[in-house]
Amino acid sequence: MARPDNLTSRKRFDGVLTGPELAMARAAGMDLAYCPLQQGWVALGAAEDGETGPPLSWHVGRLPLFKQMPGRPVHPQPESLTLRVWVEDDLPAYRALLSDPSLWTWMLEDRPRQLDDDTCRALIALSTEGTHHKVRVATLAGQPVGQVRLEYGADPGTGELSYWLGAPARGKGLGRQMVVRFLGRLAARRPDIRRITARVHPENRASIRLLQACGFTPCDRDRLGLAPRGRDDGSWLGFLRQSG
Question: pTM of this prediction?
Answer without folding.
Answer: 0.69
